[in-house]
Design a protein that fits this description.
single chain; alpha/beta; six-stranded parallel beta sheet; 10 helices; 6 strands; about 50% helix; Sig_transdc_resp-reg_C-effctor
Length: about 220
């Protein structure tokens, strides 16, 4: 009797984990080690460490958190990883799902964007997809992306651009009001509109998105 041919073994995906929380990293490593087709080649607690390890280990995929404490954040780390050959694919794994976070990560070159609430099976599937260069998005993130494509945000008005420019210089509301000869209440009203249009809820987020989208002259 002729034996049934077995499918060839799949080459494990080489993965580097980058998260600034040691406990989170430990949990992820334990989870990833349980997957037979994933090989963890390193762990990093900062963006700078991830860049150095990636050069040494040449991972297929970097599992990237966005907020990394001191030093460069996950978005900037992603941008630098993707700019250095052989560029690994980057799969963001984070708790943050604002439009600004998603946009910045994807524009920096992230292949996928997952939330930490995802099931282990979905994470494994996303890692395999990312290794092949295919996008992988958590359902809430995919909904946000589709919503933005269907309903593009209105452009900033000249006054909103002025306020955003002053905001990027670190000026508080009262200083912006004085510089533009308007009331502080008017500044706050414009800021709320700017936040809505950029999909953020903080001053730092507004400035970050403005820089990413080249809204600042």
């Amino acid at each position: 009797m002729t034996p049934t041919p077995q499918p060839p073994a799949r080459t494990p995906v080489r993965i580097l984990v980058c998260d600034d929380h040691a406990v989170v990293r430990a949990g992820l490593l334990a989870l990833l080690h349980s997957a037979p087709d994933i090989e963890v080649v390193g762990e990093a607690g900062s963006g700078e460490e991830a860049l150095a390890l990636a050069r040494k280990t040449a991972p297929d995929v970097v599992l990237m958190d966005l907020q990394l404490g001191e030093g460069i954040d996950g978005v900037e780390t992603t941008r630098r990883l993707r700019a250095e050959p052989p560029a690994p694919h980057v799969l963001v794994l984070t708790t943050y799902d604002t439009d600004a976070d998603v946009t910045r990560a994807i524009e920096a070159g992230a292949t996928g964007y997952l939330l930490k609430a995802e099931r282990a099976e979905d994470l494994f599937t996303a890692i395999q997809a990312a290794a092949q260069g295919r996008p992988a998005l958590s359902p809430p993130v995919a909904d946000r992306v589709m919503s933005r494509l269907r309903n593009p945000r209105p452009a900033l008005t000249p006054r909103e651009q002025d306020i955003l420019a002053h905001l990027s210089r670190g000026l508080p509301n009262h200083a912006i009001a004085r510089a533009l000869y308007i009331s502080e209440a008017t500044v706050k009203t414009h800021l709320r509109r700017i936040y809505d249009k950029l999909g953020v809820d903080t001053r730092a987020g507004a400035v970050a998105v403005a820089k990413e989208q080249r809204l600042l002259s």
